[in-house]
Amino acid sequence: MEDKKGAFESRLGFIMAAIGSAVGLGNIWRFSYIAYENGGGAFLIPYFVVLLTVGIPMLILEIGFGLRQRGSAALSFARLDRKWEWLGWWAPIISFLLMTYYTVIIGWTLNYVGYSFFQSWGNDPETFFFNNHLGLTSGVWEIGNIQINILITVFLVWAANFIIIYKGVQDGVEKASKIFMPLLFILMAIITLRGLTLPGAMAGINKYLTPDFSRLTDSKVWLAAFGQIFFTLSLGFGVMITYASYLPKKSDVVNNAFITGLGNCGFSFMVGMGVFGVLGYMAHQTGVPVDEVITQSIGLAFVAFPKAISMLPAFQTLFSLIFFLALFIAGLSSSISLVEAVVANLMDKFNIERNKAVILVCGIGFLGSVIYTTGAGLYFLDIIDHFNMQFGAALVGVVECLVIAWIFKASRLREWMNPISDFSIGKWWDVLVQYFIPLTLGFSVIKSAIDEFIK
Ligand code: PFF
Ligand code: NA
Questions:
Q1: Would you tell me which CATH number, out of the four given (1.10.20, 1.20.1740, 2.60.40, 2.115.10), belongs to the domain 11-453?
Q2: How far is CA 278 from CA 121, 264, 288, 395, 416, in A?
Q3: Which residues share a beta bridge with 146?
Q4: Where, by residue number, does the polypeptide cross the bilayer (predicted)?
């Protein structure tokens, strides 16, 4: 083993960890509502186009770069040229920001596991979510300005992260991912099958699968697809760079990137069937058109789903338990990748032990999370997530692409990766990472900045 930080025991371990990072709240909670907001079937075409032209090529870039440079993001860039080290630090900074609220939403899923036992949301899951759970108005379970129910679960989420990352790459990240991923797949497959076999499901599925070509000219739909692909594949956070640095030096890059990208998006596609099936069922039960069964898209997982569950003919408690447990597992396996990436940067830079870095990151991270457990939490979450994704990750993506493709040189990386990979990529990849991705992504950052600040 070449460094003290750690290494994956097997290729399968790496793939499970990479998929564990990719498959998260983004695949169930975020994907469903973004697809819903962007017209269902209208969204799937841009989503898959961006996956193939940007997502997978970027995965190849990040995995290849991490494997070649053998370090966390900052170290990998520093090894290219000291001048570029700051770029590597950008990634752990936005990762840290993301961690502080991502863990809060995972906390909510744990709360909802608890509520599931009693079906606490009753017949009004919306009021329950905002008032009881988040404490926006009535301040139930509130002490000072803090929602105690959320504070407790957020603490548990950080504790789980602490334990796993403390154990290191092989005994922590790899072991956990090998258990979590198959389990997650089984749980979500059960939910999807249930959703698909409910009366009225077909109306929902139609909304999901019928392409709407007229919306393809709407730049908003494309921007949403960009954002979702970056978020869902954990791109621009230095996570894939860090994980790849734990692979043995001569490992496959190209096939691993394809497996991770297609596996992640295949999972989302499957979950989408279940979710839209459930929406179709709700339309069927209430007589409201599919388009209008929900009004609160962000609350899809926490409002619409409990609502749908209350309408199920049987096993309500069981299905809500399965659903929220699945969300929890998906979220936890993604959050550990963020914590690991930040920890790895600190270990690389300051030469500190893993245990010290973990205590530091989890301690400060937990404190950062507390702000989202207050009555104003949802407000902050919305704003910070928006900026972090729209400008943080996307900007890292552009610059990372430019630096690696032009300064390290795309052709050099490709010629190094091809012989060690299961199959090769051609010159088309150079063109994508040198021109196509920086241009389209750069355009998307500028376009959202204009929409944001000028209009
Ligand atoms: N990919 C995760 C999801 O889809 O939920 C979120 C995520 C994890 C984004 C790790 C970025 C990251 F570095
Ligand atoms: Na994902």
A1: 1.20.1740
A2: 18, 21, 13, 36, 47
A3: 143, 374
A4: 12-32, 44-65, 86-110, 146-167, 179-201, 221-246, 258-283, 321-346, 358-381, 387-408, 428-450
Nearest CA to ligand 1 atom 7: 234
One DSSP character per residue, 126-141 reads HHIIIIIIS-SSS-TT
- Dihedral sign for Cα 398, 399, 402, 403, please: negative
Strand ranges (DSSP E) for 220-325? none
CA 235 to ligand 1 center in whole angstroms: 8
How distant, in Å, are the alpha carbons of 77, 167, 238, 366, 379 from that of 263? 28, 27, 20, 31, 33
Which parts of 51-132 fold into alpha helices (H)?
Answer: 56-69, 73-80, 85-118, 125-127
Question: What tens-digit pLDDT sequence spans the chain (455 residues)?
Answer: 344 467 999 999 999 999 999 999 999 888 888 888 888 888 999 999 999 999 999 999 999 999 999 999 999 999 999 988 988 899 999 999 999 999 999 999 999 999 999 999 988 898 899 888 988 776 667 777 788 999 999 999 999 999 999 999 999 999 999 999 999 999 999 999 999 999 999 999 998 898 888 888 888 899 889 989 999 999 999 999 999 999 999 999 999 999 999 999 999 999 989 988 988 999 999 898 887 777 666 667 888 888 888 888 889 999 999 999 999 999 999 999 999 999 999 999 999 999 999 999 999 999 999 999 987 888 888 888 888 877 788 888 999 999 999 999 999 999 999 999 999 999 999 999 999 999 999 998 888 888 878 86
Atom of ligand 1 nearest to the CA of 231: 9
Query: How much distance in Å is there from the Cα of 140 to the middle of ligand 1?
Result: 31
How many whole angstroms separate alpha carbon 23 and alpha carbon 149? 26
Please give the distance, rounded to the nearest whole angstrom, from the Cα atom of residue 240 to the centre of ligand 2: 13
ipTM for the whole complex? 0.98
| Residues whose CB falls within 8 Å of the CB of residue 83, separated by 6 or more in sequence, listed in order | none
Atom of ligand 1 nearest to the CA of 240: 13
Sole residue written with tokens 């990979």: 421
Q: pTM value?
A: 0.94
**At which residue do the structure tokens 């949301």 appear?**
121
